[in-house]
Amino acid sequence: MTPWTPELPLIAILRGISPDEALDHVQVLHETGFDAIEIPTNSPDWQVSVQRVSQAFGQALMTGAGTVLTSEHLAQLSAAGGRLMVTPNTNPTLIAEAVSAYGFQVCAGFATASEAFAALQAGAQALKLFPSSVFGPDYVKALKAVLPAHVPLYAVGGINPGNLASYLDAGCIGAGLGSDLYRPGQQVAVTRERAQRFVQAWQAARPQAH
Prior knowledge:
Layout: E1 10-13, H1 19-32, E2 36-40, H2 46-57, E3 62-66, H3 71-79, E4 84-86, H4 92-102, E5 105-110, H5 113-122, E6 126-129, H6 132-135, H7 137-144, E7 153-156, H8 164-170, E8 174-177, H9 188-209
């Protein structure tokens, strides 16, 4: 399965969002240019949020779940209409099930080259270096020297508009954006403002990223 290629390779991680809030925040993210939404499984009634977003936006957004840890999560994600599965760790058995049984796009979390190759062998189409802020851009450069060039690599964990460019320059295709984009309970206007800052940072860094 070929990797999904987003126009804006920034994944919005809405950890802690509730179903009643989800559509309003996702709407402003979509309007700002985001096309990938991740709702972690440790959010309240996450399946309901995924379902509502999937039904409202359809193919216009790559909607899915993060912190996917079990086969039950996979079944729930599929039932909710999600298409993207993001993990915080490397679990080859779960990755293989996600791809072969459900056809999900999988962005697998890893920390070492060994974990990265295990995830790819299991069928992951993209990789997520987590937590990126602990490793830094130099670590990304070292990994890119051995990872297959065609594999999308995302930086996740501690990414903000100020350091995004350094990870893109090091070889990441994009990033997953957590608490610097969304915190539980924040106003929709704050989400819009933060999203715009990230998009501006991405646009400014694109000459470096390509």
